[in-house]
Amino acid sequence: MPAYDDSNIFARILRGEIPSDTVLETEHTLVFRDIRPQAPVHVLVIPKGAYVSYDDFAANAPEAEIVDFHRALAQATRDLGVALDGGQGFRAITNAGEHGVQEVPHFHMHILGGRDMGRMVQPG
């Protein structure tokens, strides 16, 4: 696992050095709009702790952080109108490492919705 780099853009957002369009903030989680949206709804859900990837988060975060992250994600999908209890669904994506094409080395989950998202990946 690569070491966490606290100069990454999400760490800087969490420290208040870079503004974000916040959708929801809890004790352990921040949800904000993506600056390059790929769908009508496109937010990023990030833990406030220093985790590189989902597997790092799942293995090393305390239970309270893990629960808070997933509950915040669920609340955000409801607030944004894409949860299945009123919306038509969404896609949740996280990328890890080189093969996952991870651009920011801070664990984050993309929530995309508001239209049909098509195939998950192209065959091949």
UniProtKB/TrEMBL annotation:
A matching Pfam family: HIT
Transmembrane spans: none
InterPro entries: Histidine_triad_CS, Histidine_triad_HIT, HIT-like, HIT-like_sf
Domain HIT: 9-122
Domain of life: Bacteria
Molecular functions (GO terms): catalytic activity
Active-site residues per Swiss-Prot or TrEMBL entry: 108 (tele-amp-histidine intermediate)
Motif (Histidine triad motif): 106-110
Protein name per its UniProtKB record: Histidine triad nucleotide-binding protein
